[in-house]
Amino acid sequence: MNKVILMGRLTRDPEVRYTQTNNTLVASFSLAVNRRFARQGEERQADFINIVAWSKTGEFCSKYFKKGQQVGVIGRIQTRTWDDDQGQKHYVTEVVAEEAYFADSKRENSGDSSFENTFGSSVSENSEFSVSSDDELPF
Q1: DSSP-derived secondary structure for 54-76
Q2: pLDDT of the residue at 107
Q3: Parallel/antiparallel/unpaired status of strands 122-124 and 4-10
């Protein structure tokens, strides 16, 4: 099983590009994820993890995620390699986001009305819409 669950802060705004073959949106960003424990007398360490979000999930991330925001991502680890123009091989390990969530409290985002009902809002590749904790459900 390949499943990753992360919560961290965005180190930069998501970067958007489109594939050349079928014009699919791809959003890339990285999360600073704090390590669970800190050595005595030292600051807590963080890992910087590259995230790639495709299609609807990528659109959601590019539209609503901003540098410094705390977010949650559920996805899978992917590794890939390629050769550059000089023939040097490059290796990348990244998380492909399948679900993305806001993790900041409403108070932290109170200056931006677009985040009014954000806690609990999410999007995933399998969903047609997002549901926030304040939304009414039709059933």
Answers
A1: EHHHHHHHHHH--TT-EEEEEEE
A2: 58
A3: unpaired
The residue written with tokens 């992360």 in the block is: 6
Backbone angles phi, psi at 113, to 5 degrees: -65, -20
For residue 114, the model assigns a pLDDT of 41
- pLDDT, tens digit, 9 for 90 and up, residues 34-49: 998 888 888 889 999 9
Give the list of residues 6+ apart from residue 93 with CB closer than 8 angstroms, or none. Answer: 50, 77, 78, 79
Q: How far is CA 94 from CA 30, 38, 109, 130, in A?
A: 9, 24, 28, 25
Per the prediction, the chain carries an average pLDDT of 83
The span from the CA of 88 to the CA of 119, in Å, is 44
Tokens 């669970």 -> residue: 36
Domain range annotation of the chain: 4-124
Q: Cα–Cα distance between 48 and 118 in angstroms, integer? A: 24
**Residues of the chain above pLDDT 70, percent:** 76
Q: Give domain 4-124's CATH architecture.
A: Beta Barrel (2.40)
